[in-house]
Each structure stands twice: as structure tokens, then as C-alpha cells.
Design goal:
By secondary structure, this protein is of the alpha/beta class. It is built from 12 helices and 17 strands. The protein folds into 4 domains: 120 residues, Rossmann fold (3-Layer(aba) Sandwich); 37 residues; 110 residues, Tetrapyrrole methylase, N-terminal domain (Cobalt-precorrin-4 Transmethylase, domain 1, 3-Layer(aba) Sandwich); 120 residues, 2-Layer Sandwich (Methyltransferase, Cobalt-precorrin-4 Transmethylase, Domain 2). The protein binds S-adenosylmethionine.
Length: 413
């Protein structure tokens, strides 16, 4: 390759590779990391290597990559628009790079970024933006620094810390699941949606510490303080969401867990749709799975349970409005997770046992999941009612019924 003066900056460019042949020489870890990005760009990837990683083998088996199971041959460069020399033999990489240069095909070398005609920057993506970070010239090359800078920029974009103007902040409502309580357990997308909102309509169970991080300009509407007047609370919430979005604001409806798991989220979607307000959803980490997990209890376990049923216990068995088939749950053998069930736990346990489930079935009550006050109380179906009373269990709590409890707590009394 002709000498490139070190003080010449590189020329950044984006390649449109869709439908174009790309040669990848080598089937190891470098190829494994880079090939998915080439595929995402729509490239026609031809990979030459006597051996490949299992993941590349999977891509080849799925027909996403054409794998030539042998060493590199000069003719492999025929028709290629772009070449990646990523074998574990520096001499082969050098030869591929030289041949590519002769043919005026851009080439990157995995083993020596300075020795080929092109190199790959540190790349990150967020929504419709690609962040590519690279050295200005050879003397500035520091892959760790560039990867760290890329991470910093992409994380800041994701978390909404980097101002990107008003381009994406269309008015509308976004339902944001906040997770079980610990502010670390909201998703990256959820945190970003909160940070970008003009108005946050927050529930009692939504992780409140996150509200303290909101920009000073964000208006917070506390659902508990909404005037109810003649209308029910949910109607009032729907009205506020539609009114704020229609006034041109970006509204985040912020709830604990996931908004669609006993969260009335879909009623809010319907209200927005009926009013012509754009509505999107950011799912949350939901308590029936996350809270047992935080307490070290798996809701499924191989060889122990093949089913998991999540049930609202806010109405007791026999209540005329209850939609739960308690009889069927008594016949079930898998895991049952009861939510909103502290008050009716004794009646529920009795109904399930009467329908056939053993009174000795292990039960764990996990209270205040992910909060500093989190605790687990163990019982059986037969002792659940008295245990809840004795231990003064208060909501929020999830009640896990089934042998998975014994998997996590084999020494239970
Ligand atoms: C109205 S439901 C809302 C559930 C929420 N949308 C979700 O996906 O987790 C409230 C019930 O969720 C459960 N719950 C929510 N957060 C909890 C937590 N941090 N610890 C224990 N249980 C929790 C309790 O059973 C509580 O009564």
C-alpha cells in the first residue's frame, strides 16, 4: 500500500451495501462480530474460511451468509465491493489487502487497522441515528477510547441526556412501564421516554425516585391528587392524557411494572385512539415474574413446572364479578402467581385446596419487591392465611404458589 502521511485525516463515508457482494475472509470472533452488521446493511456476504464459529455456522445454515468452507483464493475477490480480511494469519490478511488494493476494492484488516485501505469505526445506533467514532489520523488511533466515546454518546442519547432538538418529540402519549420499584429496573427506552416527556402522569406504584431525576421543566401529574368529580378516576386519567396530548405535549403515562399487566393500560390506549391521539407503548419489567426473581424464586424450573398462571386476587372466590376459574386452578400443577391478593389470600388458598391442590403446596409471599424493605414470608396453602396475619403482610406483595418455591427454599419448615 502506498505510504499515507500520518497527518492526513481519514475520510468518513457511509457505504450502501444492500444487495452488494462483500467478502469476509475468516470465520472467527472478529467475523462473528462484524457479519451481523453487514447483514443488517443488506450485504450479500460471502465468507471464506475452513472453520467458523457456531453462530456463523447458524447464519450459513439459515441461508443468510454464503459460506465457502476452505481457505482464501484470489478469485474470491471477483465482484466484491468491500472486503474484510479477518483470518488468524497475518500473511494471508496482508495478501488479501494487497490484492484488494490492486483491484481498487476497499478492504479492512482485522489484525492491523493501519495496513489496509479502510478501517471500521466504533459504531453505535440509537433509533434512526448511527454514531461512528474514529481517529482523525493514524497517530490518534485508540480503539478503546473510541469505543468508550461511542458508548458515552449512545447511552446519553438513549437516556435522553443528550439534547437532540425537537425532531422526534411529536405530541402524543407513551405508556411507560416503570418496573417493580427500584429505579434501576426501568428499561433504557422507558427512562428515555420519561426524560423526554413534557408531562408525566404518575401512579402510586411507579418508581418515584425516577421523578426526582426529571428535568425541572417537566410537569408531574400525580394521579392520586386528580380531582375525581362525578367521573371515576380512570375516566379522569384518560381525560388528562388526551387533553395534554391534544394541547401539543408529549405525555408519559408512568406506572409500576408493565402498564398492561393489571394496569388498565389498554383503556388508556382506547381513549387515545378514540380521540385521535398518537399512543405508543414501552413495556415494563412486570412484578409477577420480576419480584419472585428478585427474591431468588424462579417462576419456572425444568422438570418441576411446565406452566405459569398469573392471577388477580382482588376479588375473592365466589364473588359475582370474579372472572377467575378457581376450580381449574385447584387442578393445575404448575406455578400460580397471585397479585393484589393479600386481603383474600386465605379464601383463595381454601378454594384452591378444596378444588384439589394439596394443602402442603409450598407458598412464598414476597413483599415490597426490589425495595429496601423487601422480604419473603414462607408458608403452605394450608397455612397461608394465618401466616399473612401473623407476619403482618401488607401490599404490595406477590404470592407464589407451587413447587418452584421448594426449589428455591428446600429447607422450608
Ligand atoms: C395493580 S397491580 C399492578 C401490577 C403492575 N402493572 C405490574 O406489571 O407489575 C398491583 C399489584 O402488583 C404487585 N406488585 C407490584 N409491584 C410490586 C412490588 N414491588 N412488590 C411486590 N408486589 C408488587 C402486587 O401484587 C400489587 O398488589
Amino acid at each position: 500500500m502506498p505510504e499515507t502521511p500520518a497527518d492526513h485525516p481519514t475520510y468518513p463515508v457511509g457505504l450502501r451495501l444492500a444487495g452488494r457482494r462483500v467478502l469476509v475472509a475468516g470465520g472467527g470472533n472478529v467475523a462473528q462480530r462484524r457479519v451481523p452488521t453487514l447483514l443488517a446493511a443488506g450485504a450479500d456476504v460471502h465468507l471464506v474460511s475452513p472453520a467458523v464459529t457456531p453462530s456463523i455456522e447458524g447464519l450459513a445454515a439459515a441461508g443468510e451468509v454464503t459460506w465457502h468452507e476452505r481457505g482464501f483464493r484470489d478469485a474470491d475477490l471477483d465482484g466484491a465491493w468491500y472486503v474484510m480480511a479477518a483470518t488468524d494469519d497475518a500473511a494471508v490478511n496482508a495478501r488479501i489487502s494487497d490484492l484488494a488494493e490492486e483491484r481498487r476494492v476497499w478492504c479492512v484488516r482485522a489484525d492491523d487497522a493501519e495496513a489496509a485501505t479502510a478501517f471500521t469505526p466504533a459504531v453505535g445506533r440509537h433509533q434512526g441515528d448511527t454514531v461512528a467514532v474514529m481517529a482523525t489520523g493514524a497517530a490518534d488511533r485508540d480503539p478503546r477510547h473510541h469505543a468508550a466515546l461511542r458508548d458515552e454518546v449512545v447511552t446519553a442519547l438513549r437516556e435522553g441526556r443528550l439534547a437532540v432538538g425537537e425532531r422526534r418529540r411529536r405530541p402524543g402519549v407513551v405508556l411507560v412501564g416503570g418496573g417493580p420499584g427500584d429505579p434501576e429496573l426501568i428499561t433504557v427506552a422507558g427512562r428515555k421516554a420519561l426524560m423526554e416527556a413534557d408531562v408525566v402522569v404518575a401512579d402510586r406504584l411507579a418508581p418515584r425516585e425516577l421523578l426526582a431525576e426529571l428535568p425541572a421543566s417537566t410537569r408531574i401529574v400525580d394521579v392520586a391528587k386528580l380531582p375525581r368529580g362525578r367521573s371515576a378516576l380512570q375516566d379522569e386519567i384518560n381525560r388528562v392524557l388526551v387533553e395534554e396530548a391534544s394541547a401539543g405535549h408529549r405525555v408519559a403515562r408512568f406506572k409500576g411494572g408493565d402498564n398492561f399487566v393489571f394496569g388498565r393500560g389498554y383503556e388508556e390506549v382506547e381513549a387515545c385512539v378514540a380521540a385521535g391521539v398518537e399512543v405508543t407503548v414501552v413495556p415494563g419489567v412486570s412484578s409477577p415474574i420480576a419480584v419472585p426473581g428478585l427474591a431468588g424464586i424462579p417462576v419456572t424450573h425444568r422438570g418441576v413446572t411446565h406452566d405459569l398462571t398469573v392471577v388477580s386476587g382482588h376479588l375473592p372466590p365466589g364473588h359475582p364479578d370474579s372472572l377467575v376459574d378457581w376450580e381449574a386452578l385447584g387442578h393445575a400443577r404448575g406455578t400460580i402467581v397471585l397479585m393484589m391478593a393479600v386481603e383474600n389470600a386465605a379464601a383463595i388458598a381454601a378454594a384452591v385446596v378444596a378444588a384439589g391442590r394439596a394443602g402442603t403446596t409450598p407458598v412464598a409471599v414476597v413483599c415490597d419487591g426490589s425495595m429496601p424493605t423487601q422480604r419473603t414470608v414462607l408458608a403452605t396453602l394450608a397455612t397461608l392465611g394465618e401466616t399473612i396475619e401473623r407476619e403482618q403482610v401488607r401490599p404490595p406483595a406477590v404470592i407464589v404458589v407451587g413447587e418452584v418455591v421448594a426449589v428455591a427454599h428446600p429447607a422450608r419448615d
